[in-house]
Design brief:
Blueprint lengths: L6 E5 L20 E2 L2 E2 H11 L4 E6 L4 H6 L4 H9 L3 H9 L7 E5 L6 H6 L2 H4 L4 E4 L3 E5 L4 H12 L2 E7 L9 E5 L6 E9 L10 E9 L3 H5 L12 H8 L5 E5 L2 E5 L3 H13 L5 H14 L2
Parallel strand pairs: 1-4, 1-6, 4-5, 8-12
Antiparallel strand pairs: 2-3, 6-11, 7-13, 8-11, 9-10, 10-12
Length: 294
């Protein structure tokens, strides 16, 4: 019997320096994919998977994220007075219920593992989901975390989302070794952070979605530094593998790394083309631009 996954952690303390000057006064997580902030898309993915409590690990100048998930009374009142029912529904659909959001601070930029550790008191002694907001994942039939929930129900333990990359690109990512598949889920036999492509155990990378058991906090709490002099979540998972099982699921969909400009622009194009209200006109505009700049 597996414990239910009720809580999700979102590390949103990063500075977003690759998007300056846009992120000088605006958190990178609030940059929009078509008409929704990146963080909203990732929270919606978690909600679809059944998450009930959304935990944000923030930093300085991230207050607008908290405001975004609050109820905008003045805006709601104005929309009601003007009879803007469609706009009101958009706000209501994206707003968590009272008590479903928590915010804590990562006071120093000591790495992703440290950011996750900062959420330990809010998560408590139960398994949780971890979603990296930079990774926007567009599922073909359901979101990435919802796909992972099925694997968790079957196997328990720790679950990692995986994606295939070209073998020569494995040196850019955390890479896993796998055993034989069971219901489209693979036992993880090893994890290596940014291996030499010639030494990589596979071409399957860790892609920014995790279901983790709470014992990972004990390891992170030792504050051992890894690559870049930071506390790394991958290092903690490698140590946790000595006592707990890990499985991986290959995500059925497309991932856009919105931590860089090309990934962010690609996500905007993909989501626009998938929006029935604007897709036809977007195709026309893209064709015009491609012709213009050939």
């Amino acid at each position: 019997m597996t414990s239910p996954i009720r809580k999700a952690v979102f590390p949103v303390a990063g500075l977003g320096t690759r998007f300056l000057p846009a992120t000088k006064a605006m958190p990178k997580e609030m940059l929009t994919i078509v008409d929704r902030p990146v963080i909203q898309i990732v929270v919606d993915e978690a909600r679809e998977a059944g998450i009930e409590h959304f935990i944000f690990v923030t930093g300085r100048n991230k207050g607008v994220i908290e405001d975004h998930f609050d109820k905008p009374y003045e805006l709601v009142e104005t929309l009601q007075q003007r009879g803007k029912t469609a706009e009101l529904k958009i706000i209501e659909d994206g707003q968590p219920q009272p008590g479903q959001t928590s915010f804590t601070r990562q006071q120093e930029p000591l790495g992703l593992g440290h950011a996750v550790w900062c959420a330990r008191e809010l998560v408590g002694a139960e398994p949780f989901a971890l979603l990296l907001p930079d990774m926007v994942m567009q599922g073909k039939t359901q979101g990435c975390l919802a796909q992972m929930m099925g694997a968790y129900e079957n196997h328990g333990g720790n679950i990692i989302a995986l994606e295939e990359v070209a073998p020569e690109d494995t040196g850019k990512y955390g890479v896993v070794g796998i055993g034989e598949a069971n219901n489209a889920t693979y036992p993880i036999t090893e994890m290596v952070e940014k291996p030499d492509p010639a030494q990589a155990p596979s071409n399957l990378i860790i892609s920014g979605r995790y279901i983790l058991q709470p014992e990972v906090f004990d390891i992170l709490g030792q504050h051992e530094k890894g690559a870049g002099g930071e506390i790394q979540i991958t290092d903690a998972m490698i140590r946790l593998m000595a006592s707990q099982k890990f499985h991986g699921t290959i995500f059925d969909g497309d991932t856009y790394d919105c931590g860089n400009r090309i990934g962010f622009l690609s996500a905007n194009i993909a989501y626009a083309l998938n929006d029935p209200d604007i897709s036809d006109e977007v195709k026309i505009r893209l064709t015009e631009l491609l012709t213009k700049f050939e």
